[in-house]
Design brief:
One of its GO terms (biological process) is proteolysis. One of its GO terms (cellular component) is cytosol. One of its GO terms (molecular function) is metallopeptidase activity. 23% of the residues lie in helices and 36% in strands. A hairpin with a 6-residue loop joins strand 5 and strand 6. It folds into 2 domains: 217 residues, PmbA/TldD superfamily (PmbA/TldD fold, 2-Layer Sandwich); 223 residues, no CATH class. It is α+β, with helices and mostly antiparallel strands. Strands 3-2-1-4-5-6 form a 6-stranded antiparallel beta sheet. Strands 7-14-15-16-19 form a 5-stranded mixed β-barrel.
């Protein structure tokens, strides 16, 4: 895998070829990654895998015509040949009045922030094996666990570099470590499975493997002997590991492409009360050691922390340059891209700020409700906001968690769900998208 200076050197070779081919503008991106993972099952090594890959993507503009190509052969001759193919393609593509590089006056010019994305460490397969074995052993030691789907541990390192014909050059590298366990409790038709997983940029920040495994085992056992639940309207409480998905639906609805295509249930909501007062949702690309932290976006624009929802009000859209032009606005530094095709827009380290109530206080007063720990399917309409998902979790009775519940459906509309949402105080930064425990009143449950 290339270092950032080496990657930028190759990208400049591609840009020089683009100028030689007559392109009016061009950009190039390098993505390299390597990873090692170990899988164990029932206390024995099952698999050791290692992968390494790197690609360069080049995008050329001839006026408002453009084309993209990518190659895993990073030699100068291969890069020049790829650029020549892109040039031939671009001349034949339809014109797009919104295509083009990011505005030159908005490019990142200052030195990138030190986001502590790379701890410089190297975890050997033997170390990873010990971590995976420890996670699985802790999960299997939980009384009631009867079988295992395995434990795993991994290390990865990735490098991203971008260069443009109008003056931007930048790159960064980052490490990532992960540990997981998945086990089965019970027997026969009454078996239940669950898992636990953690990921971190620095090995020193990764939760202990034993803790991860123990949580997986306890979750699986807790799901045994599910009861039936009658259909009806009731409060739904989302566990943080599934509640984060609600923010995913929010982001999908406020990206520039969805707004420009008019395919968003929040099309007319900018500046309006989308969540209840007191709710704040932030995107923080500068969080040190954040899983999606980055100093610049996929077009070379500076990133910056942003309150997407401020006191319940939607502050604006997330725009790449093309969607910004289409909407007559300026890009917001949220472009994301790979080596193929144009950039899109998306969030980085996204989170909902904590509320004032503990999870127990949040459930107090619920005579009958549902605590959801798993969601199934993709029943969300991005145009209307209609929401219907298969779910499992636990019954809430008189403010207390009761027996497990499975094979149910929860439904509502995201507009109503957002307005009737209350966050608890238990926010933890563990994922790329983090939320506390969330209560949503007025949803419908279809049970037995």
């Amino acid at each position: 895998m290339l270092s950032v200076p080496e990657a930028l050197d190759r990208l400049n070779t591609a840009l020089a070829a683009a100028r030689q081919a007559g392109a009016d503008a061009a950009d190039a991106v390098y993505v390299g990654d390597l990873s090692t993972g170990v899988q164990v099952r029932l206390g024995a090594l099952e698999d050791v895998g290692s992968s390494e890959g790197e690609e360069i993507g080049v995008r050329l503009f001839f006026g408002t015509r453009s084309a993209s190509v990518s190659t895993s052969d990073l030699g100068p001759d291969a890069l020049i040949a790829s650029v020549e193919r892109a040039a031939a393609m671009a001349r034949e593509t339809p014109e797009d009045p919104y295509a083009g590089l990011a505005p030159e006056d908005m490019l990142l010019r200052a030195a990138p922030h030190d986001l502590e994305l790379d701890d410089g460490g190297v975890a050997t397969p033997e170390t990873l094996k010990e971590m995976a074995l420890a996670a699985e052993a802790a999960a299997r030691a939980v009384p009631g666990v009867t079988n295992s789907e395995g434990g795993s541990a991994s290390i990865g390192r990735a490098t991203v570099a971008i260069a443009t014909s109008h003056g931007f050059e930048g790159g960064y590298s980052g490490t990532s470590y992960g540990t997981s366990a998945s086990v089965i409790a019970g027997s026969g038709n009454g078996m239940q499975r669950d898992y636990a997983y953690r990921q971190a940029r620095h090995l020193a920040d990764l939760e202990a493997a034993e803790s991860i495994g123990r949580r997986a085992g306890e979750r699986a056992v807790r799901r045994l002997n599910p009861v039936k639940l009658k259909s009806g309207a009731m409060p739904i409480v989302f566990d943080p590991r599934v509640g984060a998905g609600l923010l995913g639906h929010l982001i999908g609805a406020i990206t520039g492409s969805a707004i420009a295509r008019k395919t968003s249930f929040l099309l007319d909501a900018r500046g309006g009360q989308v969540f209840g007062k007191g709710i704040t949702i932030r995107d923080d690309p500068h969080r040190p050691r954040g899983l999606r932290s980055k100093p610049f976006d996929g077009e070379g624009l500076p990133t910056a922390p942003l309150a997407i929802i401020d006191d319940g009000v939607l502050t604006g859209w997330l725009l790449d340059s093309a969607s910004a032009r289409q909407l007559g606005e300026r890009p917001t530094g949220h472009a994301s891209r790979g080596v193929s095709g144009p950039p899109g827009a998306g969030a980085t380290n996204l989170y909902m700020e904590a509320g004032d109530l503990t999870p127990k206080e949040l459930m107090a007063g619920i005579g009958q409700g549902l605590y959801v720990t798993e969601l199934i399917g993709h029943g969300v309409n991005p145009v209307t906001g209609d929401y219907s998902r298969g779910a499992s979790g636990f019954l809430i009775e008189n403010g207390e968690l009761g027996p497990a519940v499975a094979e149910i459906t929860i439904a509502g509309n995201l507009k109503d769900m957002f307005l009737n949402l209350t966050p608890a105080s238990d926010l933890e930064f563990r994922r790329a998208v983090d939320v506390p425990t969330i209560r949503v009143d007025g949803m419908t449950v279809a049970g037995a």
